[in-house]
UniProtKB/TrEMBL annotation:
PANTHER family: FISH-LIPS, ISOFORM E, SLIT RELATED LEUCINE-RICH REPEAT NEURONAL PROTEIN
Native organism taxonomy: Eukaryota, Metazoa, Ecdysozoa, Arthropoda, Hexapoda
Keyword Cell membrane on entry: no
Keywords, ordered alphabetically: Leucine-rich repeat, Repeat, Signal
Protein name: Uncharacterized protein
InterPro entries (UniProt xref): Dev_Immune_Receptor, Leu-rich_rpt, Leu-rich_rpt_typical-subtyp, LRR_dom_sf
Pfam family, any one: LRR_8
Signal peptide coordinates: 1-20
GO cellular component, as recorded: extracellular matrix; extracellular space
Domain of life: Eukaryota
Length: 313
């Protein structure tokens, strides 16, 4: 009889602490780390550690979660940061973030996501940062970013994105920084950024872009902005008035300066000359090595230029 009670007790305990429950493998105040676990899409996502049930940052890594449970934010509405790293995630389904209204930051790294679909983040109206990197994304549907009117940072580095619909970024009216490095883009529509008037950091290094429209950034004020289009196939480019500019490792024959530039990196191109307005007093660092410059008129006029330290041919 006593044994029976003990066995019953163990059974009840096992039922209570069932496989659905998620343990924080490590926890520091409001951060819950969940390492090396297999997370099923059908079991409700419940964090059981006593004082971690209020974790606002949840970091899930080095395990298996090919399909994401819809209950993560339903059961844990206090989560404001979610990071999913190396979980073999295969896709993001339309309802995965349906209860993500309190999310400020979504970071998804090292997975196998192939597409992003319409309305995936439409409930995430408070999201500030969205990073989906080192996946296999080749298609982003036109209404994927609907509802992200507060998003400031978008990172889609290391994917296989080969085109961006001209209206794709229209909902992102607060976007400040965009990174799409190491993808397969070969062109950008001239109206791609018309609604993103707050943009000041553009990082598109490592694509196959062959030309950029003069109007691409006509709605931005880049006074303290950065643009990086290094490692592309551009034959001509301009500074767009940004402060830090990188067009190194392209196929530039001509480069047009406007004004306000501080750092210009145009090494490893085929430049014969740089074309600039009469006086460009702001340039402090100029990286020019590995070009074919024969005309130095423009450089001669760079009065605040720190010759000895940064001028390289
Ligand atoms: C749980 O909460 C207590 C009291 O706030 C704290 O001292 C303890 O470090 C917490 N434990 C963990 C694992 O975070
Ligand atoms: C996404 O929305 C656009 C515009 O409404 C529509 O044309 C497209 O078919 C939608 N995509 C899917 C997969 O339904
Ligand atoms: C892009 O790829 C290059 C070459 O493989 C690598 O050196 C660089 O770190 C990558 N950039 C990012 C943002 O991962
Ligand atoms: C481009 O040049 C800038 C300024 O020199 C540098 O900070 C940045 O890392 C470079 N980008 C790449 C992809 O090398
Ligand atoms: C110049 O180009 C050569 C050959 O591609 C390369 O080895 C070298 O690192 C480049 N120098 C600089 C400063 O980029």
């Amino acid at each position: 009889m006593r044994y029976l009670i003990v066995i019953l007790y163990i059974c009840v305990l096992l039922l209570y602490l069932n496989e659905a429950d998620i343990q924080c493998t490590k926890a520091y105040s409001i951060i819950c780390y969940i390492q090396g676990q297999s997370i099923s899409p059908t079991n409700p996502f419940i964090i059981v550690n006593s004082n971690q049930t209020k974790a606002s940052s949840v970091i899930i890594f080095d395990g298996q979660m090919p399909i994401m449970p819809n209950t993560i934010f339903l059961n844990n509405p206090q989560i404001s940061t979610i990071s999913i790293n190396s979980m073999n995630l295969q896709q993001i389904a339309p309802d995965n973030f349906a209860n993500g209204g309190n999310l400020k930051s979504i970071i998804i790294m090292k997975g196998m996501i192939k597409t992003l679909g319409n309305g995936t983040f439409k409930s995430c109206t408070n999201l500030l940062q969205l990073q989906i990197t080192e996946q296999q994304i080749s298609f982003i549907d036109i209404n994927t970013f609907l509802g992200l009117q507060n998003l400031q940072i978008l990172v889609l580095n290391n994917n296989q994105i080969s085109s961006l619909h001209p209206l794709l970024f229209n909902p992102l009216i607060s976007l400040s920084v965009i990174l799409l490095q190491n993808n397969s883009l070969n062109s950008l529509d001239s109206t791609l950024f018309v609604k993103n008037t707050m943009l000041s950091g553009i990082y598109f290094a490592g694509n196959s872009i062959t030309d950029l429209s003069n109007d691409l950034f006509k709605n931005q004020n880049f006074k303290s902005g950065s643009i990086d289009f290094s490692y592309n196939y551009l034959t001509t480019a301009q500074s767009y008035g940004a402060s830090t500019i990188n067009f190194s490792f392209n196929k530039l024959k001509t480069f047009y300066l406007s004004s306000g530039e501080s750092t210009i990196n145009i090494r490893n191109n085929f430049l014969r000359k740089i074309i600039c307005p009469n006086s460009i007093p702001t340039v402090k660092r100029l990286y020019l090595s590995n070009n074919s410059l024969s005309n130095f008129l423009c450089i001669r006029d760079m009065h605040s230029f720190q010759h000895k330290t940064h001028y390289t041919i």
